[in-house]
Specification:
By secondary structure, the chain is mainly β. Strands 2, 4, 5, 6, 9, 10 and 11 form a 7-stranded mixed sheet that branches. 0% of the residues lie in helices and 55% in strands.
């Protein structure tokens, strides 16, 4: 059975930092493309960071230079380091892993950035 469990969310002031973790069991993060998404209230889900099986990372302009995705294969965990947080980063952040026609989701962790 596959599980993705996010943690590390919380309340932080603007300009602060958080590190989210996604602990994965049942699949090997080293051979899956791993993605962090977020969804703010009333808005569509947005991709905020991805890391391919080869280690290539990708970020949208809204977080580039502030967010960093990484993967620890030994711990089967994916991280999202978020710096210089802004109120508009407030959302539920979810971890996703996909490979070919399979994908798995975590339950999400809430991040609230106060101004």
């Amino acid at each position: 059975q596959v599980h993705l469990v996010e943690s590390g969310g919380g309340l932080v002031q603007a300009g602060g930092s958080l590190r989210l973790s996604c602990v994965v069991s049942g699949i090997d993060v080293g051979i899956y493309n791993m993605v962090w998404y977020r969804q703010a209230p009333g808005k569509e889900r947005e991709l905020v960071a991805s890391i391919s099986t080869s280690g290539t990372t990708n970020y949208p302009a809204s977080v580039k230079g502030r967010f960093t995705i990484s993967r620890d294969n030994a711990k089967n965990t994916v991280y999202l380091q978020m710096n210089s947080l802004k109120p508009e980063d407030t959302a539920v952040y979810s971890c996703n892993g996909w490979r070919y026609d399979r994908q798995w989701w975590g339950q999400g962790t809430r991040v609230t950035v106060s101004s």
